[in-house]
Amino acid sequence: MTCNVVNHPEPRSPACNGLRRGMYFPYRIDEVGYLSYDSKAADLLFEVVNRRYKAQKSVALTTNLAFKNWTTVFPNATCTVALVDRLCHRADILKVEGDSWRKKEAMERQERRKDDEENDQ
């Protein structure tokens, strides 16, 4: 499972001051759908999302798959529907369209290398 989780800072760290004012850090789960999930991984992801949902805490999730295609990644269709339901209820969904930043940066690096090689000759 590919995910990035933001851990809370140590209680004594200066970065923790925001926690005292009622701020919190969302869990960040990156690139859902990049890899297929076995039943255990899917159940664990559901448990994390479900606990955050019940506690009314945030989850920031990225994916390249439409929700209707999540059944191709998760083995249990019922669990997938429940997962999507909890993610979408009380959610702000941002759809980002356009070229991949990684692809754009890779193309720019390739172009710079090509220019450097031409200048060296």
From TrEMBL:
It holds the Pfam family IstB_IS21. Residues 29-106 form the IstB-like ATP-binding domain. One of its GO terms (molecular function) is ATP binding. Gene3D superfamilies: P-loop containing nucleotide triphosphate hydrolases. This is IstB-like ATP-binding domain-containing protein. It comes from Persicimonas caeni. The lineage of its organism: Bacteria, Deltaproteobacteria, Bradymonadales, Bradymonadaceae, Persicimonas.
